Amino acid sequence: MARPRVLSGIQPTADSFHLGNYLGAVRQWVTMQETHDAFYCVVDLHAITVPTEPADLRRRTRVAAAQLFATGLDPERSTIFVQSHVREHSELSWVLNCQTGMGEAARMTQFKDKSAKFGESAASVGLFTYPILMAADILLYQADQVPVGADQKQHLELTRDLAQRFNHRYGDTFTLPDPYILKEVAKITDLQEPTAKMSKSSSSPGGIIDLLEQPGPLRKKVMRAVTDTGSEVLFDEENKPGISNLLRIQSALTATSIPDLVARYEGQGYGTFKKDVAEAITETFTPIRERTEKLLADEAELDRLLAIGAARARAVAVDTMATVRDRVGFLPAPGV
Ligand code: TYM
After folding, report:
1. Which residue has its alpha carbon closest to ligand 1 atom 14?
2. Which atom, in ligand 1's list, is nearest to the CA of 13?
3. Looking at ligand 1, which atom is closest to the CA of residue 10?
4. What is the pLDDT of residues 232-264, one digit of tens each?
5. Phi first, then psi: what are they for 8, rounded to 5°?
6. Has 114 been annotated as catalytic?
7. Distance 151 CA to ligand 1 centre (A)
8. Band of pLDDT at residue 74, cut at 50, 70 and 90
9. Are 83 and 46 in contact (CB under 8 A)?
10. Do 75 and 42 meet the contact criterion of CB atoms below 8 Å apart?
11. pLDDT at site 336
12. Is 249's C-beta closer than 6 angstroms to any atom of ligand 1?
């Protein structure tokens, strides 16, 4: 039987992924390449929904791709590609824009959060329709599962609604995708503001740990992570959100259950625990950083890997789009 299909994406909007991206999403991408037919993209079309310098975008797109390979995604087993290399993403996005109600798009909470920064009327229309482009990414590949963090759940619901609506209007065309969200790591929080999501756009430098962070600053950030005034390492999200976040991180990185960690640190205070958390993150991130640096040193090779991914992705996307064009009633394009 064919393997189920998985698709996910990540934005090249910073010079490094962060711990939330890694634990909430990318780590699952790596595991799923063993069991799924995997498609993962660097979503540069999404990145330009907010003002972006072309040189930054170019650099960050390559850095993002290099990090994906460096975390263990294998270009033989997974299709890793850049979204704008497959023009069908924009094309399907337009068709889906025309299936989406204004009110439906306006309910997306990420738009509300992100546009609040600029003022709603200064935000681009692209930022408003961003989730529809995301739906196109997923539906083009007929994905069965989409590994993401909790913040993408609402976008996945919209994606399913759009797929269902299209199938109902035009005949069965799209697979309905399921979100794949691991509860324990679905929302890694900011080290300085432990009730808020760790986020490249809103966290302060002290609140966010980059995948490409050097060990010195990394350790400092963990040691300075906001905790409560107590001294017991206990999992209590209400009263100890900072320690609970660190427990989740440590549990995911060391494959140790939270109760086991709590037992291990009984009577030892926060200092010892934080030192071990910093150690576990450094141990995981250092080899990834080193591999990323190596990959970035050979741009031609990186671009060659991305060209292979683009060709494989295109083969699937072109097929889906041909069906969509026909279903919608577009005449066959002459000469294509
Ligand atoms: P992006 O680039 O913001 O984040 C990439 C992935 O990281 C997850 N994530 C987190 N998980 C846990 N804790 C956190 N603090 C945290 N911060 C981020 C995100 O949930 C995401 O899975 N719209 C998407 C990109 C996208 C996409 C797609 C995803 C575009 N097309 C198609 C899936 C399928 C985004 O902005 O992710």
Report:
1. 20
2. 2
3. 2
4. 999 999 999 999 999 999 999 999 999 999 999
5. -150, 170
6. yes
7. 7
8. very high
9. yes
10. no
11. 60
12. no
Exposed (0-12), middle (13-18) or buried (19+): which is 258, by Cβ within 10 Å? middle
| Ligand 1 atom at shortest distance from the alpha carbon of 46 | 30
Centre of ligand 1 from the C-alpha of residue 172, in Å: 28
Identify the active-site residue in 112, 153, 200, 220: 200
What is the CA(145)–ligand 1 centre distance, in A? 14
275 catalytic? Reply is no
Which residue in the block uniquely carries the two structure tokens 């980059």?
210
User: Is 138's C-beta closer than 6 angstroms to any atom of ligand 1?
Assistant: yes
Residue 28 Cβ contacting ligand 1 at under 6 Å: no
pLDDT tens-digit readout, 34-49: 999 999 999 999 999 9
> What value does the CA radius of gyration of the chain take, rounded to a whole number of Å?
21
Cα distance between residue 35 and residue 145, in whole Å: 12
- Least Cα distance to 179 among 129, 135, 122, 244 occurs for 135
Q: What is the pLDDT of residues 82-95, one digit of tens each?
A: 999 999 999 999 99
HEC string of the chain equals: CCCCEEEEEECCCCCCCEHHHHHHHHHHHHHHCCCCEEEEEECHHHHCCCCCCHHHHHHHHHHHHHHHHHCCCCCCCEEEEEHHHCCHHHHHHHHHHCCCCHHHHHCCHHHHHHHHHHCCCCCCHHHHHHHHHHHHHHHHCCCCEEECCHHHHHHHHHHHHHHHHHHHHHCCCCCCCEEECCHHHCCCECCCCCCCECCCCCCCHHHCCECCCCHHHHHHHHHCCCCCCCCCCCCECCCEHHHHHHHHHHHHHHCCCHHHHHHHCCCCHHHHHHHHHHHHHHHHHHHHHHHHHHHHHCHHHHHHHHHHHHHHHHHHHHHHHHHHHHHHCCCCCCCC
> How far apart, in whole angstroms, are the C-alpha atoms of residue 22 and residue 149?
10
Q: N- to C-terminal Cα distance for the chain?
A: 33
Q: What is the pLDDT at residue 333?
A: 83
Phi, psi angle pair for 158, to nearest 5°: -60, -45
Is pTM, for the whole model, over 0.90?
A: yes
